[in-house]
Amino acid sequence: MDPAAPxxxxxxxxxxxxxxxxxxxxxxxxxxxxxxxxxxxxxRQRPNWH
Length: 50
Fold this sequence. Notes:
Elements: E1 7-11, H1 20-31, E2 37-41
Parallel strand pairs: 1-2
C-alpha cells in the first residue's frame, strides 16, 4: 500500500440514514477534510448541506 495514495471513503445510500445531526456532522467533516482524503457520497436525495 502506497502511503502517498489518497484514502477514499464511500458512503452509499446516504438517504437511508440521512438526519439533521448527520448532515451537520458531515458538513463539518467536509469543511475540515484532511488533504489526501476523498469522500464520495451516493444518495437518491440531495443532502441538506449548505
